[in-house]
Specification:
Blueprint: E1 2-3, E2 6-9, E3 12-16, H1 19-32, H2 38-52, E4 55-62, E5 65-73, E6 93-101, H3 110-124, E7 129-135, H4 139-147, E8 152-159, E9 162-170
Parallel strand pairs: 6-7
Antiparallel strand pairs: 1-2, 2-3, 3-4, 4-5, 5-6, 7-9, 8-9
Helix pairs in contact: 1-2
């Protein structure tokens, strides 16, 4: 079943995150990265972005528990975009960020379903292009993004010591 902001499939659901979903997914991220204070800061940032309309987070739920996420960053003011309007400009181009799923749920198509939901949402909001970044060493993820149609190279960047390659896809 598909609605504007939601897909449902047996024990899994894919939807725009509620405030409770956001708190739970970020608390899980923080617990999975003990001692790394960046995750606490990112939790506050991403919740604020969702509250102000600068971003919209989507989740994969398994039996009601968030196990995966992805965020559409709309504003160039979001820290991950860093005012690079070729990644997100607030009107025409948005960036897919923080796309991840727990290992136990990998390889089953959940992130592909979540991406389709995010793409539909972005298009419904008037966005024409989505961008996505991948660390150059993550060849498996790059192959997936290319398969999804993110084939136009946008730019390289060095972020936290890692080479990140950004690609784009036009939405239909």
């Amino acid at each position: 079943m598909q609605t504007t902001n939601r897909f449902v499939s047996r024990r899994y659901a894919y939807r725009a995150a509620t405030p409770d979903d956001l708190a739970r997914i970020w608390d899980r991220n923080i617990a999975d990265n003990p001692g790394d204070g960046r995750w606490t800061a990112w939790k506050q940032e991403y919740i604020a972005y969702n509250q102000t309309g600068k971003a919209r987070t989507f989740v994969v739920l398994h039996d009601g528990e968030p196990v995966g996420e992805g965020t559409l960053l709309f504003s160039p003011e979001c820290a991950a975009v860093g005012k690079r309007t070729q990644l997100a400009d607030g009107s025409h181009t948005a960036n897919v960020n923080a796309l991840r799923i727990e290992k136990a749920h990998e390889g089953k198509g959940h992130i592909s379903r979540l991406m389709r939901l995010m793409e539909h949402y972005a298009a419904a909001q008037g966005y024409k292009i989505l961008t996505i970044g991948v660390e150059a060493r993550e060849t498996r993820n790059l192959a997936i993004y290319l398969h999804w149609g993110y084939g136009r190279f946008v730019m390289p960047a060095v972020e936290e010591g890692e080479l990140v390659l950004y690609y784009a896809r036009e939405l239909i």
